[in-house]
Every structure is written in C-alpha cells, then in structure tokens.
Design a protein that fits this description.
Five copies of one chain form a homopentamer.
Chain A: E1 2-11, E2 14-15, E3 24-29, H1 30-36, E4 51-55, H2 61-64, E5 70-74, E6 83-88, H3 90-93, E7 105-110, E8 113-117
Parallel strand pairs in A: 5-7
Antiparallel strand pairs in A: 1-3, 1-6, 3-5, 6-7
Chain lengths: ~120, ~120, ~120, ~120, ~120
C-alpha cells in the first residue's frame, strides 16, 4: 500500500452511478508532500489552512495539482492533512461499501505513526 | 483514480467486437496538460479550438501525442477540454455497459472543481 | 489503453500451452516510435523495410529493443508498421480467444486516426 | 515479485476492518536500500539498531520515508532488516489469511540468498 | 509481456506454502541486460559463467541486483542466460500449476528470436 497525505478534495457532479455518495480525496505520496508545501514542515495541523478552489476550465489548478497526486475514495473518515494508507488497484474495491464501483484507489487506514530503522545514522 | 484532461479522440474501425460503439478519448494527466499546450493556460474553453487530424502512417502525430497520454472509454458523456476522473486497470470495466470489453481505462466522472489545501503559501 | 506502433515480432517455440498459436508482436509507445527510428518520420509505409533478425544469446538485439517496448498478443490482424490500441493488464485477456492464457497485453484495435486539440498553437 | 528490505513498521489504529490484526511493514527495494542507509553496508544485523518514531502531523518522517518505499502485510513472520520477497497487486491477497482484505502488497518469503550470474566481470 | 534475460536465482526457505517447489528466477529487462554485464555483449553462452553467491544481511548483493530486476516463477524450464517472455500481474497466475499462489510474475516462454523492423537505418 502507499502512504500518502490528504491534500484536497474533488467535486464531480456528473459521474458513474456507483460513485454517488463516495468522498473523493486528493492524495500525495508522503515523501513528496513536504517539498511541495513548505507549511507542512512546521508541525502545524493542516485542516484549517486556507484552500484554493478553482474552476476546471483553464484555471491555475494544474499548478497546484502535484504530478504524483492520485484521487482515492475515503473509507475510514479521513480528512485533509492526515497521513493515510492507500490500497491501489483491485484491492481498493475490497474496502468499499459498493464493491462494484469503478474505483482503483481507496483510503483504508489513518496512520498514527511510522517507525523507520537506522535513520539517525543516515 | 487519475485526474486528466480530454485532449483528443481516436478512430479505430478494425477493433475488438466489444469495443464497437464505445467512444475512445485521449487523456493527459492534469498537471502536464498546461505545459504541453499553452492555450490551456488562458482560461478559454477548449471544445472549439482547431484540431489536428493526421493519418497514422509516418505522420507528425507522434509529436502531438504526449508521452503520458492514455486512451480511455468514455462512460459519462465527456468532451474535449473537460477535466475528468479516470479509473484505471480492472476498475475501468466496472463502469462499462459491456463489462467484458478489453478496456483498462474509463472516464467515470467530470470534475467540477478541485480544492488543494495550503497552496497559497507555496 | 496505450497507443503503440508495431515494430517487430517474437518467436518462442517453448512456451505456455495457452500461448500456442498466438501471434506475438513487439510494440513501442507512439510518442517514442519516431525518435527511435528516423525512417518513421518520412511517411513511408513500414511493412517492407528490412528487418533485423538476431539470435538471443549475446547478440545485438538489446540495442534494437527499445526500453519502453512491450510484447502483446495480436487479436485484430495487426502488422508491423501499424498504429494500434493496446489493452494492458487483466483487460488483455478479455480480448483473447483463450481467456485463460497468461497474457498481460493485447492489441485490441488498429488506429485509423487520432485528433489532438489545439496543437497548432503549441 | 519485488525483492525488498524491511526498514520499518506502520501503526494505524483506525483502518478497514479486514486489516485488523495484520502486521504492516515498510519495505524498500533491495537495490536502493544501501544507498539510503549507510549502516546497511557494514554487514551488521539490523533488528537492534535504533529507530525513529515520529508522529504523523508535520514531523520529519517525510525525510526518512524513502520515495520508493511501500507498505506490505507480513504473512511469513518477517522483521526489520530482513530481505524479503513481495507479491504486488491482486497476487498479494492470495497470501493472506483474509483474502478479502484491501491489500495490494504482501511479504510472501524471506530471502536466504540471491545468486547473480557473471557479476565478477562487471 | 516483458522480454527479459534470466540473470540469477533466489533461495527462500521460509515462504508462502503455495510457493513451495516453485523455481524463483531473477530477470532483467532485455534492453538493460547488456549495459549491466559487459560479458553479455560478447556472444558467449551464459549458463557456465561464475556466479556471485552472497548472504542477505549487509552483503554486496545490493550492488549486483539491478534496479529494474524482478523475481519471477519459472513455468517453462528456463535457465540463467536465456531470454524469456514474462507475464506480469494477474496474468502470471494463469501459467502456474498452482493458480492460487501469490505470484505476480511468471516466465511463460523462451524467446528464440526477435525481429525489429528498420533498425539498420537507426
């Protein structure tokens, strides 16, 4: 599974029936989330920071949407700023209330902590 | 799921039976769609801009076809210039009227807006 | 789906039973097919150009085999030089006469034309 | 399958029901595991080296989490510092005690040795 | 499918039950196999060249294990030095005697020859 940070939300009114009622979140892989947003390095909680809300036709959102971002369906009540575990591919559908939905990415856990061995010596 | 922009169409007369009647669109990931086409940065709607229509043998379409473009089956009535949500892999078939078609990418939603947190501070 | 150009063929006598009788073609993604072979830029048809036929032990074919090439089973009668639509992953098996074959890439259409919007302004 | 080295652990209290009781390990592909951690080149066993344990909000773990790391469910009793064989995609679920869990990566073997041919001449 | 060259073997005593008795081979994509091992360019057969056999804890095998190598289950009697056809993802399991094994890569053919069109002009 991928570890990512929730950095935004997607609204799509016209969509596949099986996606109705699903919360769509934008995720960025953990390792790149700090580079792209310096505020993430300061230890502040994210949910209250201002957001950028742009229409989709020719707007500047392409700049804000990171190259490695993906959109996933939330299945655990995740919010913007949280670090999450993401199942990709056919595994994503195993987490859905509607397993026949056309979904290839799902948030399946909220990460409390990660321990990496030996990094103090790096 | 991937967020992409519809940048073109594909015509294939000879194809798998299960693909007959499916609309095939060319998509580019959102983050790279502006770099590749400066006109996309000006806020103008795309559907009316001129198109390049080239035959497939030795023509210049290789230059126009972006390296990261994919071809997807449309399931929601999307058109050129729209920003869409794309399901990849086995998820794509869940959105089709013919779920046994040999399809690995399907447009499953039209994006109204995306909100990215904290980008004002970037 | 991927759009690719057929650039060669593969012969494998010893193989999985379910692959017997399947035509195996070498494909390269469309965008890179011209860079790698200058002759493709001149508009000439490809099927008659000379081919390189090399044995597999220590021969020079590694140089000729592009890094991004894949081998796919043909299901629509495609030939060398044609631009094709390729289904990857589990979708590939949906196009086969033997859906239980160990195949992860299949040619599912022959592309007549591709229209890309707005490239005249690029 | 991928060959990776176990470099850490993940704790997620809130998660998909089918993930409860599964051990989640952080893996790095073998070839890059030494570059990222010089101590790995000295032949010492890893399980006893100190670990870095950081909270997930704005902490420095993004630096410690390698770009190519993945999180996998352990099915063979692997531990930090071991070299393991990892099944990705739908194959991962074949190794689980709960095959319906939303899992796209599973450790399916502990590697005793790898023999690479001809490297003495490299 | 991928075309690769068999460059080594993997021994794993502790592993998923369904992997017992499966031969695990290390593969490298064809295009990069020559760069990494100059001896491959000289036309000599590979099976008799010396091998490097290293333990997994802190040894130098990370250097010998190419970044793009994968481990696949052999289903056709392939050996070190041979050029093979590899099925990835769910397709791999279609080739196995035990289709429920947690396997995402399988050797499904031994390549006799590859013909690439037009390379003489490259």
């Amino acid at each position: 599974m991928m570890v990512g940070r929730v950095i935004g939300t997607v609204v799509a009114t016209r969509k596949s029936d099986a996606l109705v009622g699903q919360k769509l979140l934008v995720l960025q892989p953990l390792h790149s989330s700090r580079e792209q947003d310096p505020s993430l390095a300061q230890g502040a909680a994210l949910p209250d920071i201002p957001v950028q809300d742009v229409p989709m036709q020719g707007g500047p959102v392409e700049n804000a949407f990171p190259p490695d971002a993906v959109v996933a369906v939330d299945t655990v009540g995740a919010g913007v700023g949280e670090t999450v575990l993401v199942a990709l591919g056919s595994a994503a559908r195993k987490a859905l209330s509607r397993p026949e939905a056309p979904v290839d990415a799902a948030i399946v856990g909220i990460v409390d902590s990660i321990r990496i061995a030996g990094r103090e010596q790096g």
